[in-house]
UniProtKB/TrEMBL annotation:
Record domain Neprosin PEP catalytic: where: 1-227
Protein name listed in UniProt: Neprosin PEP catalytic domain-containing protein
Signal peptide: none
Lineage of producing organism: Eukaryota, Viridiplantae, Streptophyta, Embryophyta, Tracheophyta
Annotated InterPro entries: Glutamic_endopeptidase, Neprosin
Amino acid sequence: AQVTLKGGSYHGATGKFNVWNPVTFHPEFSLAQMWVIAGDGADLNTIEAGWMSDGYRSTGCYNLDCPGFVQTSNKIALGMHLNMISQYNGQQFETKITVHKDPTSGNWWLQIQGEDVGYWPSALFKALSSTATAINWGGEITNTNPDGRHTPTQMGSGHFASEGWKKAAFVRNLGYVDESCTIRDPDHDLIPLTTRAECYSVHLGNFDQTYGAHFYYGGPGLSLSCH
């Protein structure tokens, strides 16, 4: 359950991600992140940054488990635990994540809460060696169809987007980085997309001064509406 921005030339992306601890079942995962994307098929490049419950067990390359990402921060480590977790109808916590391309080196930098964590060298990429052509923000889960049914692994808070503030997970203050390294609002160009709306939903909010471009997303997985 995500929103996407495409059709432009993007030098990065940003968003404030509401932090939850959704229920997951081995070997599945549930994540909230943004995707900075260029290319397709065998030439597809993506940079992905966010939070995850459980983790990829057999596919993908995350944190510092493979060569490439250059860590520069001694304050924030990839793969560290997030201890400040939002509560249903209670206190909400979030983390700001930004990925942007350095115009001089061509490297893609990761910032968390304003701290430069490190970078992906430009030499790692083909399609992303220039600019991104799409950005996605939102949630994703794996569904192994246990016992022939949809998984009960949750996305976001485990509640549908329609429940809104303090109940559904959100991503707010979405932005993209333009060629002048300025963060811009994508308030009129976002496209919601979900593969199983009866299991996990997404709802775009109206642009405002505090939350900017934002949306709610998530769901419980297996339920009366999701089989």
